[in-house]
What does this fold into?
Amino acid sequence: SQTGDSGNVEWSMLMPDREFTRHAAAGGGTEVSDSRMFGIPQFAFTSKINDAMNWGLMAYAMGGMNTDYQDGVAPGSGPESVNLQGMIIAPTLSFAFNKNVSAGAALLIGTMNLTARNLFGAFVPPGGPVVNNTFDDSSVGWGVKLGVDAKITDGISIGAMIQPQMQMDEFKGFKTFLNNFGYTGDASIPLPNEYGIGAKFAAGKSMDIVADILYYQWTGNEVFEFFGWEDQIVYKVGLEYRPSDTLALRAGFNYAESPIKGGNTTAPISTFGGTTADAAFANYLFPAVSETHVTLGLSYKMDKSVTVSGYYLYAPEASQTATTSNFGGGYPTGTTISMTQHAFGLGVNYAAK
It folds into this structure.
């Protein structure tokens, strides 16, 4: 509702370092993921319909995870890899009730791909080998996102959003693989229920402070719950300082406890006698344990219509260590998973005047 006729194209490079360290009783040693650089494109445009209504279209990453280890959780189990990636295309409509309050709705059209090679290759359920731990699955689905923005006073605005869990097709190969461990739930991996509130505060004419709180309900999805994920609260704060009419400088900080914690356990796995595994151990191929992100950014206005922006992100190393027994003690505790992230991005925005 506030951007008018404008278009934006951006490109980010995400550079994560992922590794896991085996417990000494499992052979010891540290494995480092080979894949370390990922390009992420996105674009958006908005257009004014009339004084009250705007529409737009956005395309952006649906999140994901990748690891590519030359050896698995047990020495000699061979190369193991997993790659989950997706994109959302979101046609959006907003309506301004007056100059202070607006609301919007987006239809989320999602597509995801999950590929795996020798997935959890070290594990052989009792009674027979796992024969379907290499697969290439695709999934499509949809969802909605609703939001509202309100100007309270000069210099203070608040916002809120809700995004119910997306409805995605199941990954068929992944489901067949999980069935070997007694899993009978849904095998889709959509974005979870998400809720958020935020505020923007003007600190004088040249500085703005923003703050958000987001809640991700990972336990509302059967796959994440099966692998021992917890719900997550994300805290964000950012600052923008404009030393001139053409330059804006930004800094941000983001914190959330890892949804994967050592000591938490997976759902009971029937093919291992109904026992559980430590969540840190079970997610060694999916070490989504980062907790803190720090960002720096800037925008430079080339002319009255064109603005160039850039950012850098750093997420220091975070790790989780398995502290409970796995599968009735059949696999030792002590596996440690960790991640560090660097990222940078560049974007160009054109605003019609």
About this structure: The two ends are 15 Å apart (CA to CA). The CA atoms of residues 165 and 304 lie 40 Å apart. The mean pLDDT is 91. Helices lie at 172-179, 222-226, 279-282.
